[in-house]
What does this fold into?
Amino acid sequence: DAGRLADARLECQAVVTASPSADGFALLGVIHHALGRPADAGDAVRKALYLDPNHREALALAVLLARAAGQADRAAVLQA
It folds into this structure.
């Protein structure tokens, strides 16, 4: 919340490297999204969903990213 997204990205990356988790990758995706890095956000979200296909935050971000990329059909599938 302090706006130190670059620091947050580094910390989160270190955590998921040491101990991968769906929560960690979902958070990393949110941070990448906030930094304007949609490709990196998508990579993190895919990793989160690989670990937990029903992870709500990762699914929500995946829907958002798909819509932003003009992939309405993919967004609808993910939302369903």
User: Anything to note?
Assistant: The chain has a mean pLDDT of 95. DSSP finds five helices and no strands in the chain. The helical segments are 5-18, 22-34, 38-51, 56-68, 72-79. The radius of gyration is 12 Å.
